[in-house]
Automatic annotation (TrEMBL), chain A:
Enzyme class name: transferase
Keywords: ATP-binding, Hydrolase, Kinase, Nucleotide-binding, Nucleus, Phosphoprotein, Serine/threonine-protein kinase, Transferase, tRNA processing
GO molecular-function term, one example from the UniProt record: hydrolase activity
Family matches, as InterPro entries: Bud32 (IPR022495), Kinase-like_dom_sf (IPR011009), Prot_kinase_dom (IPR000719), Tyr_kinase_AS (IPR008266)
Organism the protein comes from: Phoxinus phoxinus
Keyword ATP-binding: yes
Name by which UniProt lists this protein: non-specific serine/threonine protein kinase
Major subcellular site: nucleus
Similarity remark: Belongs to the protein kinase superfamily. BUD32 family.
Pfam family, one: Kdo
Localisation per UniProt entry: Nucleus
UniProtKB/TrEMBL annotation, chain B:
Subcellular location as annotated: Cytoplasm, Cytosol; Nucleus
Protein keywords: Cytoplasm, Nucleus, tRNA processing
Gene Ontology cellular-component terms listed: cytosol; EKC/KEOPS complex; nucleus
Main location, first listed in the record: cytoplasm
Nucleus is among the record's keywords: yes
Keyword Nucleus annotated: yes
GO BP, sorted A to Z: tRNA threonylcarbamoyladenosine modification
Stated name of the protein: EKC/KEOPS complex subunit TPRKB
Length: 233, 175
């Protein structure tokens, strides 16, 4: 189990020179050059409070899920960063840097009026419908986990999904409904007064997926459960 | 003409790639690689989309070599194995290694930065014409590559053929 430090030494030395762009609770995200190209490196680190073996397994699973779902999305023509290299000893994923991108979160926050955002939320609904049709459940849908590449024409919105560490494969409408519920919660709390906009996203989702009616039905059920819980709690 | 790239993760190593066409002694070259006369990987250029694909395979090979987890016997065979989308070693060699009837060869050398690499010595062994490495995309068989890596047309909506190939190579252990 224990890897000697000399064996693991290459990646940490490299990351010391890299630019840290995000320090999260489970991962650090860096920018650097790899094989001459700009990359983003996602390093999952150990949680000292967890049992080492449990932790190792969990961290490895997250890394594995992330690269599997990225590949599954890309196979289906859904934009996600290309994986260049995975180091399972240090739990690092080397990804294509989506250069000049802004998160959908920042984009929405800086938009003048919700009208400017209609085409964008329609695109999001369409992409998520496509993803769910491939049975990929993202597990952490937020507007921070969607990147927008500017420069593209108005009609063509270039949207890239990221952060698949909590993703898994499921065909169940319930799982897809919960995925949308997580997004709805995050969306409405990060972007106040966007209820109509989010409705529009769901409408586009429904129009884009053949299996959407069962999913939306589940979403309604989950919402109701959520409301009941908050009334009790 | 040749292409040299440092491996940022392994600063002591450098990768040099050479490309040849109109090669008449592929059989002989293959033997030299087997008996160690040529210390390098001899690859069939029709399976190479871009030099970056080779770099991804080489970086992974050096990494696995360092942690003692290679699936094959040498660094050079590991580079060839890493190019393949499957875990079948003999199939990887058949598809990606140079074969006797090939008339083009892509050579990959991994060397120490300090060490004086004798490229001329290797060039002199090849009975063929050296061409710039970036011309490897002119030699590729795109249809064969798409079939082997199972790249459907829809995937090219979200990236190039190189993206599709590299992503499969990098994730094949868990895919
Ligand atoms: N491939 C990429 N190209 C450009 N920027 C990226 C890329 N991947 C991540 N980023 C940036 O880094 C941020 C954090 O990445 P990510 O969401 O994958 O990590 P995280 O939120 O820390 O992960 P987790 O939720 O698993 O802890 C993103 O919001 C985005 O701004
Ligand atoms: Mg995130």
């Amino acid at each position: 189990m224990a890897q000697s430090n000399s064996l693991k030494a290459c990646v940490p030395a490299y990351l010391k020179e890299a630019q840290l762009i995000k320090q999260g609770a489970e991962a650090r995200v860096y920018r650097a050059t790899f094989l001459g190209r700009p990359v983003v490196i996602k390093e999952r680190f150990t949680k000292l409070y967890r049992h080492p073996e449990v932790d190792e397994k969990l961290t490895r699973r997250r890394t594995t899920q992330e690269v599997r779902s990225i590949l599954r999305c890309r196979r289906a023509g859904i934009n996600a960063p290309v994986v260049y290299f995975v180091d399972y000893t240090t739990h690092c994923i080397f990804l294509e840097d989506i250069v000049h991108s802004v998160s959908v979160r920042d984009h929405i926050a800086s938009a003048q009026t919700p009208q400017h955002l209609q085409a964008l939320v329609e695109k999001i609904g369409e992409v998520l419908a496509q993803m769910h049709d491939e049975d990929v459940i993202h597990g952490d849908l937020t507007t921070s986990n969607m990147l927008l590449v500017p420069g593209a024409e108005h009609q063509h919105i270039h949207l890239v999904l990221i952060d698949f560490g909590l993703s898994y494969i499921s065909a169940l409408p319930e799982d897809k409904g919960v995925d949308l519920y997580v997004l709805e919660k995050a969306f409405l709390s990060t972007h106040p007064k966007t209820e109509t906009l989010f409705e529009r996203l769901l409408k586009s989702y429904s129009a884009s997926s053949k299996k959407s009616s069962a999913v939306i039905k589940k979403l309604d059920e989950v919402r109701l459960r959520g409301r009941k819980r908050s009334m009790v709690g | 003409m040749q292409l040299t790239q440092d491996l940022e993760l392994f600063p002591e190593y450098t990768v040099t790639q050479l490309l040849f066409k109109d090669v008449k002694n592929a059989t002989e070259l293959r033997k030299m690689a087997v008996n160690g006369e040529i210390k390098g990987a001899l690859i069939n250029p029709s399976m190479v989309v871009d030099a970056f694909q080779i770099l991804v395979a080489t970086n992974k090979a050096v990494h696995l070599h360092k942690i003692g987890k290679m699936k094959t016997r040498s660094l050079y065979s590991e580079i060839i194995f890493n190019l393949s989308p499957t875990n079948n070693i003999s199939e990887a060699f058949k598809r990606f290694g140079v074969s006797d009837s090939d008339c083009a060869v892509h050579i990959v050398l991994v060397h120490n930065k300090e060490e004086n690499l004798n490229v001329d010595d290797i060039i002199s062994k090849v009975d063929g014409q050296q061409i710039p490495v970036d011309q490897v995309s002119d030699l590729m068989d795109a249809a064969k590559i798409k079939k082997l890596y199972k790249v459907a047309p829809q995937e090219e909506k979200c990236g190039s053929l190189l993206d599709a190939v590299v992503c499969r190579m990098a994730t094949k252990d868990v895919a």
